[in-house]
Design brief:
This protein is of the alpha/beta class. It folds into 2 domains: about 170 residues, Medium-chain alcohol dehydrogenases, catalytic domain (Quinone Oxidoreductase, Chain A, domain 1, Alpha-Beta Complex); about 130 residues, Medium-chain alcohol dehydrogenases, catalytic domain (Quinone Oxidoreductase, Chain A, domain 1, Alpha-Beta Complex), CATH 3.90.180.10. Strands 3, 4, 5, 8, 9, 16 and 17 form a 7-stranded mixed sheet that branches. It has a 6-stranded parallel sheet with strand order 12-11-10-13-14-15, with helices on both faces. Helix 7 links the parallel strand 13 and strand 14.
Length: about 325
Amino acid sequence: MKAILLHEHGGPEQLVYGDTEAPVLATGEALVRVQATSVNRADTVIRRGYPGLKLPLPHILGGDIAGVIEQVSPGITGWAPGDRVVCYPMVLEDGYDGDDFWGVGWQYFGMHRKGAYADLVNVPASSLVRLPDRVPFEAAACLPVAALTAEHALNVGQLAVGRTLFFWGGSGGMGTLLIQLAKRRGVRVITTASSPEKMRLLESLGADHVCNHRDDDVVARVREAAPAGVDAVLDYVGPATYERSFGLLKKGGTILWCGMITGREATVNIQALYLKHASIRGLYLGTVRELQAVVAAVADGTLRPHIHATMPLADAARAHALLESGSYSGKIVLIP
């Protein structure tokens, strides 16, 4: 089969399109022919070398799997060749239903297991989610990592009608999905973008207030929009934005951390934390049921992934370079 192979860690040029052996179907698994995948920040971190993780090389990236079942192993019920699927991006311990997935052993596609930058991938039956015919594969490929993380963050932050959410950089893959998912719940959304064009996009998706984080005093603008502070800040940037994120919280507010673009460590002022009665919650991905929920939202038309570009899988290196340049909005989809 064809795949994008990572032979050594480094820049986008390390992603090489070539031939490799097709996966051998194991007990309890389905062989999925990938119809679409998408590029995530996690892919670029793993490509460069994920801190503390040593991968056997060559490796195949890709946590987003949308495709068609080609073969099922004996004993699997409820699934058959030809079924359209989108795949939960993790493999959990046997018999686990996924509600508290962080408390058990897990493997992530494209990290601990070979991923979706390939023609074929083996997926345990427990990670298969049925994909309605009315959901295109390209849209489905935007959901397992970005939309799942967004939906999970809203649940962890207990964000509902009347609450206010702020997050940095709303024009990325997760941000464009998060705005829509938050507005479905009646959440007030304040976010940022780097250009007037991107600001207009976020407003069209439903954002209530959009700041230009290159030209505006973001803290001042957010305080104008929410004088008492915001209920939650979702921050995937890390130490570069933490102090400002914390300063925007109202008393009793929550920082939701789900990324480390600018580093793995930040200094926390303990006194400020307890005086504000604030909380810091870390999160990643989400549950199988949350993935099913975002698939249903696309199916009913209330969630529309914004796709910046669709490229052949062979152009994965170009897709990574585009993602890292920041000169895009929404998701970048790869088609094998």
